[in-house]
Design brief:
By secondary structure, the chain is mainly α. The chain has two helices and no strands. The radius of gyration is 37 Å and the shape is rod-shaped.
Length: 93
């Protein structure tokens, strides 16, 4: 490309182009960091949700086990009315 005499305005344009390039690079870096942090935050939120779901599932298992034991005890009481129930044994001690 042939050399063009731009004068004082040409120097100003060169400076503006250089600043614009610098600002675009800084913006791209900041945008990349923002997207990275958003992804990490989203992953962390999903982790908390799954942890809460696991805790709720454990609670349901515990409750189900307690109910199952109670049902088994009631069936045993019905089948053997002379045999004392576990609750009545606890009350007598």
């Amino acid at each position: 490309m042939p050399e063009v005499n731009r004068g004082a305005n040409g120097k100003c344009i060169d400076i503006y182009v250089r600043y614009e390039t610098h600002h675009r690079r800084q913006f791209d870096k900041a945008l990349a960091l923002l997207l990275k942090l958003r992804a990490e935050t989203c992953k962390a939120a999903i982790g908390f949700v799954s942890q809460k779901q696991n805790e709720a599932q454990e609670t349901r298992k515990t409750e189900l086990h307690a109910v199952t034991l109670e049902i088994k005890n009631k069936r045993l009481e019905r089948e053997n009315p002379t045999r004392p129930s576990p609750e009545s044994r606890l009350e007598t001690n």
